[in-house]
Structures
1.
Amino acid sequence: MTEEVENVEYPVDAREHSPFGFSRQPLLDKCPGFLAREADDNAAAARGTRLGEQIAQWVLDGFGSGDPLPDEDAGALAYAREVLSEWKDPDYQWHAELAIYTEIQDLWGYADLVGLDRHGEKDIILVELKSGWSERPRAWRNPQVMGLALGLLETGGPPVTAILIEVDKRSYSVAMWDSSDIRRLRSTLASIIAAAREPSESALEAGAWCTWCDRHGYCPAFATAPGKALTALRRPVQPPAEWAGGLSPDLVAEILDRAKPAVELANDYLGALKARAMTLLEAGAEVPGWRIKTTAGARQWVDAEAAQDELEPILGPVIMALKSPAQIEAIARADGVKQEMATIIAQHARSTERRTLTTDRSK
């Protein structure tokens, strides 16, 4: 791997800050307006860096199985070790944070782990480690992994076997590329960068694509009402009690302050969606997975004045507008005239239907 590629200059002091670097490719692919968003360093990113360093050191130390695992993140580290053990091979020399460049302007960055066959005969092993619960493409269509593989292939080396390990999800995927894939990889990645250089106005707005993104807390696109609603409606990746149980008091306060308006707005959107679904279903249209459920509702007076005329001689003056059939029954029980009242109530009260939207989908 060289420090420069023909016709492309990479300032050494700016490598890690390329706006179009490998790690940003999945973000730019989903959201061409991503570069217009405010940058942020957060605890999740710091944790991912720490996990990556710990796993890389374990590989560089020769896949040492006896190393103690810290209590924190032990499960994630153990899973990564288990996966990587399948690629333990004495013929490989491993490198962590290896600088990789491509012939696409501004596309460079670092690979978490790269294994090179000492004899130059076996596939190059490329490893990318991901933490957290964000939705991301599998290895074979992940732009970050594709970019790293492209840089390795452009050196004229052997084919690349790429392993994308998602340590928190306990999941990994594998992709393989060779020199015949270079043109396709270049085309895909160049188109992503081209769209990000000059994003359209629509790319700067909140939309359905925002539901995958963890940056909604400071993204200006979410200043819009739909953006805030999308934020609040994101599907949680942990049970609510488990998620909230791990938050510090300060973070609880911060999220409550920030989330309350968004949740209230999301409820407005959810209510509108339910009303639309009811309208469609009542008109005979199909809303996949959803139906109207009819149950018996509270009883109401058919003619409150007629009921009052018959009830007052027994109960005394009552204001029927303020009393439901159930309330009248309670008064009758207390006065010991339940039987007399039952016939009158049955004549003048009717049960209503309660129609609600329900789903048969599993939660």
2.
Amino acid sequence: MAMPYSKSLDTFLDPYRNAIWETLDSNKYEYDHNNINACLNYDLVEAIERTSHVVKATTVAWGAGLCIYAARLMTAIGARRVVISENIPGKGNDVHKVLSIASLEYLDSWKRGQGVGQSTLQYIVRRSIEELGDLIQSRNENEIREIESKAMNMLKNLIGILPEALRRLGIDNKLYGDLRFYTEVEMVDYKLHIWGVPDLIIEHPRERKAIVIEWKSDEGSPKETEKYQAYIYAMLEAIRLGYGETFGDIVNAIAPDNINDTKVLPIIIRPNCAYSDHPLLPLACRQNPKPVSVEELRDRLRRVIITSTYLTLLLMDIDSLLYGVERRREEGVITTRERCAIKRSDRDVSPPYLLRMTP
């Protein structure tokens, strides 16, 4: 029997609540314990359940992996410019455009056991470039050759690690026929409150397992934001596969106690290497692979949900959402802003708003 939505959502808010309590306990704050309990167990849940706001995966990755203040700025700008084409995630540079087409044909050829050699790869990539036509912004012949070279190298790097990645997920070559490939699928989830577009998903629907590929067309070292972005897409894919009734389901799909029970594996592909710090299949570009521990991986997933919840709250006028613009002005109505008030005991300032506080 399916869990009620409100209880399911509650599990996604637990990491944020825990982070808020830790922040309160680690600083000199004065507050009414009963009010804060009501704030985090009623106002927060009601607001998150009612809102349709979502935050871009790339913004959440910045907040979780690098700088929450930069993510706050990106969220504010994105809220005003969400319809502008260059602000849509997944619509990247020319290499990404070529790979969105070429990867499907190349992987289908590989799945069927047909030729995947250099000549086949070059033919598929060149034909993809021709099909894109004017959508390729680069018109210089040298730039086109560079796009072709990068796309070919990235597809070769993918094919080079794909059989082993599938094997570790428990998918042998007898099951290849049921593999499905998807590029730039728009994914939105209202428990994570994240909107993202993974570059490539290699999925086995019957086994409910998948590899999520994030293309990076430069040859630099993986950044923390890129790692978080790949794991955010893995979380969205886990929900797509049916592992999202609770936040614990997502954790168990990506970072289970027995790492061999992993259901979704994120991998970053560059022109010079394939990278993953997931303990199921550690891959590195310039040094020996250094996988994170299962607990570190779980902490990464918790940071994602804490960041996405915080950034979603920044977009909301919670009092208007819960009480209405007029009713919140009525005498005797205790609003969220009043109930969630806290005060620094060492500062003579007006109480900050708990649900605006950076956890």
3.
Amino acid sequence: MITTGKTDEKEATQIAYQLQAKLNAESNAGLSIHSKSFEKVANEYIEVQKERLLNGEYAQSSFERDVKCIDNYLIPYFKSNKISIGKITKVILNDFKVWLPKNRKKTDGKMGSATRRKYEDILGALLKWAEGKGYIKELPRFEKTRAVYNTRPSFTKDEFRKMMRKLKQYIELAPNRRDETSRQMMYYALSLLVKTGLRPHELLPMTYKDDNGKTQQSKGLKWSNVEFFKDTKTGKHSVDIYVTQQNDKNRVGRTVPADKSAYFVLSLLHSKADDMKKKIGYVFDTDFRSAFPRFLEWANMRTAKNGNNYTFYSLRHTYITWHTEDKPKSNPSQLAKVCGNSSATIERYYDKSEIKHFRHNFI
């Protein structure tokens, strides 16, 4: 119930008219008269998303990202400014866009445009849901940040062959046995990454950031998660690599099949491993994180034509690009399952295929 807070009848009547005029103006502007607190609605939304998660309709990583965004940014902003769900306007949303990067948490680093856009999308989804529940009379227009992505380059086949020839020279020029062995192992790692499309941390022991920006430590690929195959009829060799739930960014786990090239590299490394390592050990003991850029500098191949530096992730982009160029009739959803991404993500961020490289498939 709304009261004027006045005992004098004349004053109370005057304030009542003012309150009525304000309510009419808010109603005409599309604002809810009886509005829930943003925090209550946000917590209700989280419960709905949790139900979707339990029903298998929503990914664990997406749910964790939603909760992080709502707890760290959405509730603090709207609560501190005393803005209820039904009072949100276009001006308030624009103010939130300005406030967001200035109040970033340390785990979000510099909070680039892509991260800001993710959080704005989460707010947009929450508001859309609230509108459907009747908590918002009319959804205000939200002009979101335009995400600018630092495009990772991929290798063309000629560029990759050139790089591997250079790496063989680099191995031969190693100053000692230890460096020679390390460079040879890096050669095997590059060969596997480009033939499997694995994320670097799924093969090598290294830290990585999950979808929530949290740093995780991976020990890489375990020998017990590698299975070799040989078709007795055709003699065809292949290998299955199982990415565990712990190492999979989507926390689902997946199987990555690979051809004879990966088979022979892994079988060679397997033959050199002792029995204990084969049972409980890992394929690689180092991540080559410093060694790879150092080699590329030596080979004068550090920077791609688009001005961005090559990284281990470039080999995943290369795998997807080559697959798209060489196998245009394959089902995109199958490639997405093998890579642990959606088809839309692959098309938007990974596929660097050019018509000149797959023209032969159409003539």
4.
Amino acid sequence: MSAALAIFLFGGGERITLPPVIVMVPLSGEIAPLGEDFLRGWRMAVGDAIEYEVVDTYGSPDSVLKALALVAEAHGPSLVVGPLLSLTSLPAADFAMRNRLPILLPTATDLRLGTFGSYVFPFNYKLFIETAYIMEVMGEKVGKSGWLLLYPDMAEERAIIQWLISEKENFGITILDTVVYSETNMVYDGLAKAIVAAGPKAVFAPSGSKASALVFLSLRKRGLKCSVLGLDSWLSPDVAELVSGAMGGLYVVGPERGDFMARALAQAQKEDFEERYRKQFGSAPSEVAGRGYDAGCIAKEVCFDRPDRETVKRRLLLMGVYRGVTGDIMLSKDPKLLALYALKKGGFKKEESYGKEKGKP
């Protein structure tokens, strides 16, 4: 943290000039390793391409808001990156909207961040808009009653389910049951047997993984014919290959996948990042380090020439879907970038784009 920023935060100081990018991460206390991990990826991406200032948030909403008040009034800053926790990201998002300050939120899981406007760019916005699509469009297709929610006990999936439950009345969804499982210790046939016995009219399984794919196959083996609905992680090559032999009834929502070359370049970028990270730090990068890297790459693209805040916001929106080392990051607020994919012979095939005809599948 610069001397000017420290003086302002901890007592007095006139309006100051700061770099165009402010990175807000916890560097003190028990969660300091989270911030340090994020900065490893960030620094690998950014190098000296852009100027930035790192601010220690102490994991406290009060300290975040105090720092943001300074940033909003200072000369220079046009983009805030962070904070990292949902606890601090929610008040930060509200502040950013009120003060027209573009903010990237790379690691917070709370899907309520998706409800903010065009100055707030949570990396989980894709999950927010995909889940809304599932309730709105797929609810019309497969029916809105008797849904069973099937998900692993992991932070991101819990956040998806919590938001869906909080919004189910607004979308007219009724939930039959919820089933939580561990991806490291589960009996697929036993779990499938219990789901079949519950008699759901639709199963929402947001997480696409080897475990969820095996549960899906077991459900079909046991004769459950209702639709299974998922989010874009089901489209990953290893999961798609596992389920490719099971015809029909699996619908997945995700961003337009792009052509083969785009996906190949994204995979090459991921492999290059992981290799360089291992050489530099002696271990594989964590998800947080990967988010730091993606945030750094995005910041370089929009802040290379010290733009004003409105220009940064416009550039972020125009990026659409950024294909990063941690997956697709939806920066545009346009739901038309989403598509529906159905499992058919040979794998997943695109059915429609968001908001088009809502006929029965």
